[in-house]
Structure prediction request, 109 residues.
Amino acid sequence: MVHLFHVCINGRYVRRSGAFQHQLHVANYTIVLSYAGLVLLGIANRMLGGDGMVTAWMFYVCAVIFTSQLYGLLAKEWRGVDRRSIIMLLIGLLCAVAAVVLAFVSCLV
Prediction:
């Protein structure tokens, strides 16, 4: 059982290191952002009408991908990566944005 900065091992709570605490912070923020995203997904579904779930789900998944890539950039996971890989990543992100925009426009028509 994990509770903030303590871990229950054999009935005893043990305090963990700074790196472990950082990972728990990231996990807690991820949970909060995930629930907030699902709430916004439901709101968008109601506002967009019949095809709203398809468009809202595409937007939700695109936002998850962008958030994970932003966190990767902030954590310097992309340091030392070949330039071609970064270009392919950006092309993929642009394709995801284009798909969401096209789906949203088709929902409005």
